[in-house]
Amino acid sequence: ATACGGTTKNDVKDEGGSSASAGKADPNAELKKGLTVGFLPKQVNNPYFTSADKGGEAALKELGSSYKEVGPSSATDTSSQVSYVNTLTQQQVDAMAVSAQDPGALCTALKQAMKNGIKVVTYDSDTKADCRNAFVSQASAEDLGRTEVQLLAEQIGYKGEIAILSAAQTATNQNIWIDYMKEELKDPKYKDIKLVKVAYGNDDAQQSFQQTQGLLQEYPKLKGIISPTTVGIKAAAQYLSGSKYKGKVKLTGLGTPNDMRKYVKNGTVEAFELWDPAKLGELAARTSVALVSGQITGKEGETFKAGDMGTYTIGKDGVISLGKPTVFDKKNIDQFNF
Amino acid sequence: MTHRSDTGPAPVLALKDISKSFGAVRALRDVSLELFPGEVHALAGENGAGKSTLIKTLAGVHRPDAGQVLLDGEPTVFHGPADARDAGIAVIYQEPTLFPDLSIAENIFMGRQPRRALGRIDHKATHAATAALMQRLGVELDPDRPARGLSIADQQIVEIAKALSFDARVLIMDEPTAALTGSEVARLFGVVRTLREQGAAVLFISHRLEEIFQICQRVTTLRDGAWISSEPLDGMTEDDLVRRMVGRDLDELYPKQEVQAGEVAMSVRRLTREGVFTDVSFEVRRGEIVGLAGLVGAGRTEVARAVFGVDRWDAGEVEVDGKALTNGAPSTAMAAGLALVPEDRRAQGLVMDMSIERNIGLTGLRTTVKAGLMDRGAERSRSLDWAVKLQVKYARIADTVSTLSGGNQQKVVLAKWLATAPKVLIVDEPTRGIDVGTKAEVHRLLSQLAADGVAVLMISSDLPEILGMADRVLVMHEGRLTAEIPRSEATEESVMAAATGRAAA
Amino acid sequence: MTVTAPNPAPAAEIPKSSGTRLVDRVFKMRELAILVVFLVMIAITQAGNSEFLSEQGIKDLLLNATILVLVATGQSLVVITRNVDLSVGSTLGISAFAAGTYLQGGGNSVVAIALAVLLGVGFGLLNGLLVSLGQVPALVVTLGTLYIIRGIDSIWVGSRQITAADLPGGFVDFGSGGISAVPYLALIALAVLVATAYYLKHFGSGRELYALGSNPEAARLAGIPVRKRILAAYTFCGGLAGLAGAMYLARFGNVDSGTGNGYELTVVSAVVVGGVVFTGGSGSVYGAALGALLLTSINSVLPALGVSSVWVLAINGILLILAIAVDRVVALRVASALKKRNARHG
Amino acid sequence: MADSPLARAVRWDTVVGALLIVVLLLSFGFVGGFGNALNLSFLIGNTLPIALIALPMTLLVVSGEIDLSVASTAGLSGAVMGALWNQGMTIETIIPLCLLLGAVCGLINGLLVTRLGLPSLAVTIGTLAAYRGIAQIILGSDAVTDFPTQYLDFAAGRIGDTFIPYALLPFLVLLAIAVVVLHATPFGRSLFAIGASEEAARFAGIRVKRQKLILFTVTGLMAALTGVFWALHYASARYDNATGLELAVIAAVLLGGIDFDGGKGTLGGAIAGVFLLGALQNVMSLVNVSAQSQIVVTGVLLVVSVLGPRVGRQISVARAGRRAAASTPTS
Ligand SMILES: Nc1ncnc2c1ncn2[C@@H]1O[C@H](COP(=O)(O)OP(=O)(O)OP(=O)(O)O)[C@@H](O)[C@H]1O
Ligand SMILES: Nc1ncnc2c1ncn2[C@@H]1O[C@H](COP(=O)(O)OP(=O)(O)OP(=O)(O)O)[C@@H](O)[C@H]1O
Ligand SMILES: [Mg+2]
Ligand SMILES: [Mg+2]
User: What residues form the membrane-spanning segments (chain D) (predicted)?
Assistant: First the structure.
């Protein structure tokens, strides 16, 4: 406590920072069968999470374990996500794969789950590191941020004003990516590119729509937009394709091939990228099983074999990275269906 | 039962052995009634006798539990007010039922507006027809004015206009005159006579017995939901009628006790509310009953409202017991010992969805308290005391007041305010809709209160009441006090002269 | 006999109708106030950003407002009858998806729109039946059906979504196309709006909606078929929500199980800002439409002025309060001025 | 009492209470994982924010008003808490400041409603956006999580191994206060009168505006308290904390039989409604009912909650009618 008896931020030492891991890993341990792994996405009924979880389901089936999915119907209903963590704990699943709506809010519940012997893997969206055993990351944040800038820069010929249309202002992933985008933009080869604004569409079609309109009105000379969110890019593409800016203002970012097919074909969008969400889910499932089986504990440097996907190494803070994202354009987009 | 035996015209509308209960309350028991064309029929009875229930049964609002409604001799079932309307029955209900957001014209013609091609409303014709009706009733009401904010009297006028606009065969009026003063009543009666001559059947309810004798030919009396008699009024006296209604002889209607007026209890000085009343000054002394008379819309109610604090005044001051009241603060007025029995009991006097007990208790929230909490025992006995004292007719004290008859609701309002033991009591139309028996009771009570040293300001449109009860009569005309007349000089002529502004010169 | 105030001022002779015309004007002014706020806002934005009122800009403004105008029009009818329909967002969502599913299978655009409207009518009927026959508080019932329809929608839709690629090109082009700066969708909304307003003013059943909202008990006594009218209002509201669903599909080309989520609050705001009173009986659909235009335009104005989206929400809320407060203060001022002018005495 | 036992039995708040007990008993018996202390403590802990706001909301609704901005006020107080904590202020100063801020938010609502005479629905839709927006401006994208553990433990922990969260105890005290205020004080009595007929209440000398102002202020205060609790309970202060909570509160309060026309309802019913919804959601998740179906169930419950009493009333009226008819010949 401080001199005047109160508790301030400085009094609270952050014990976090390292992933919660205990015991010793046995890389050669047999993969257990008959486990139950619960998937808890940010939101059920969200196409992105549905394909991710489908990937997890398929992998678990192959591994002889069972899959279940629970989750809130709203992506901002944190309290209900917490309840679902509790539900899974009560149902005594062996492991849970969670995409956290909030890095902090789930912690108490997740720690409670781990105390009850449940392994916790986060995927897509992480919590604080000490609240889970491992985090399966869709791609390294750095890769994502930098490649998106590279994609757009190429399309606009390394010259002109650009803007970013993000999700919610609190969206953890997007914020990290945007930081890396700004980092990448510092490179001298982008000296003629100016990032004029970061707008937030709150992952809402209509708001993203109007934010796009606003960007174009405010910056008539705008050359390109990066939207690192599937909802945002879709809304922006729909607006551009029905406006006079179609084809003149370039758009890239993260989108699913199914969402974006039309806009790629009609010339609104040249190229965008994304990882395969099914693969992300699969890796989360495989990581969970490996954790329960004792092949890994979540410490940096441990490795495990994730079926056909190959071998993965656990990085700093228990982060496992899926790999580089795929870039979609006119040529290859018809080969994908998600 | 003795019905008319001669072979006159057949009744247009008749009730035969009608019974109606509300839960355990039996409002009507085997009541019969016949309405003949070209005749005005009075319906008399104490408060809660079942008059309004009878009317609502005729109008298709209530379905009788037993008995028949006969239209032109044929048994009929009215499934709703619309059926009765289509059968040529126009009804003025006891409580005005207007649409506050709509214009007076729309209120009158709702559902039956004159049409143009394609079923579109002819707004011009509606306006013109309304203006014509207003002229017929001799009132100046703008047809395009919204009904919100109309005084009770004006609302009543609109209701009357509405009923007249039907050109109905049967006109039923439940206390249409309760809020009106002499001149409007005279106008109304003129119109009713014309209708009668044209062959309409009229059913008329009033607690002002002289009105019954003025306009009606026959009278049916009810007591406690039961039919007592139906007979011609020719040859009857008021006392006869009262005996049929009450079942006994009545004491004096205006039992005024002579009291020596004490010191000033309330003084109002140069009170002004812009556009409503101007420069109103008067005093009320302890033990005194001061009458406040005037035509409808003269501003009496507005003065009372401002004095009590529900409206703000723009200039002037009010003192109660030598203490100045705060502008626009009823709670301080109450604390100073002022009570106001408002004019509109349903909107202002009562919380209709609350029980009788709680309604009376509402003015005692500060007194029936123990250690900061409600003292329910004290609250109940206070409410019961006063409900009994004023002879409110109810089944259980915890029933909601909305189930009471109009007159009994009025008594609850009185009870609610008398229970505060006020030093100054303002009563606005205190006996509106109250039967003769109870009226006498209320007068006795006011008189007693005055004798006990309470200062009473009585606003009333019932001139005999003012003349019978007041020690002093103040008269308002168009927002100004025009006269102050001592009891000895107060006559119908002198008051009316001041009220119409004729005395001003 | 003592005369206390011997000289009453002769009652000023004011011709009766002058007050009326003033009253009329005040009522028109209620909408005028919002219109002025709107125009001022647009003017300021235009001054700050000349691109704002370009052809594209105007088109965007109108397009943004269209869907809300439609739903708000329907909602006003219900609110005028002293009820409310909170389920419009859910209805919009589910009918948009229904129309989308049908179009995805290669359906005809007109039939798709009819389908959406019909579905909306169906849900409107359900609400109307519950409220009018059950005679239960509309707020609770429609909050209930909000959840029920939303739930059914998400169970049915699951994680599916309909994207512009699944829709016929003509349909999507119709959604963003128009005659120079005036989008087709806005024309449809305008037609619906004008027709509704005309109906409310000039037809008996329209006036009866006001009557029964103003005093339900009196309406019953006046022989107005209360239940039938309430049912009709809800059905109409549902139908417009359905139509709005089809338009949403055309406009955004993109629907999933979350479409229309939380829309009821926006609709209610538009109606309230537009001066339709929640206790029933007063207000006009033009007001509601202006409210809708004002609300959606705020969302375009702020980004166009370069206000950071962080500030948008707060400014939005404050503007909303300002709009209703200004409206109220103006109304009070005028009313008291009128009262003084109109006073019979003094 | 005045009400017959039958009439009282069909009063909806009693029904909700009974329903809650039935749901609890059935769940104890048949739903695995429900009865254990940990689950119950979670259930209570997650329901507390709704219950906390439901207390003043019930009073407000009884008096005929509504406050839709409660969730935003909670969010704002959480955001301010996070921002001040980041500034290095002591938590012991921050919390009272947050509560004060909440009271000010409520006061603003109240002033707009009582002084300008604006409808509370409209005002609080506006402040719903405004307060949330200010929260966003203040805290932006931050998520503050490092509050002192003793506070976090208090907000999220439970007493030993029992099912009782620490936070339940202060809630019960607040509940008791609210019950007494609404049902046993002159203030509460006057709220019913105001809700049923504001004009009649004014004519009875009740200081309508002042009472409402107090209520709005207290509602803001309680919303802020909820915001503080939320941030600590979930160890996360973000500007979008508690988004949408107002709808949950209103649904629960409605379910508890509070009439939004004002003048009717009991706190017991409201709180029973809150916990009924909470328990049902918990049970349904445990038995793997999907989130979508849970929404449908909530909706159906709401519709039934208003249709139910009406049907009950009709039955009791019909019975009374029959009884009266039966007694007619005797008198
Ligand atoms: N809706 C109702 N529910 C229960 N009781 C009712 C209802 N309406 C009337 N009553 C009861 O029926 C009886 C007759 O009431 P009614 O209104 O017909 O009296 P009334 O003769 O019109 O009296 P008043 O002269 O006071 O208007 C009263 O005891 C009243 O309490
Ligand atoms: N609540 C109100 N709002 C607006 N105007 C009102 C209101 N009440 C009355 N008025 C108007 O104010 C004027 C004065 O009415 P007030 O009721 O004071 O007259 P009064 O002398 O008491 O007559 P009475 O009580 O017989 O109607 C009337 O023209 C009336 O229309
Ligand atoms: Mg009567
Ligand atoms: Mg009066």
Answer: 12-34, 40-61, 94-114, 121-143, 163-182, 213-236, 267-287
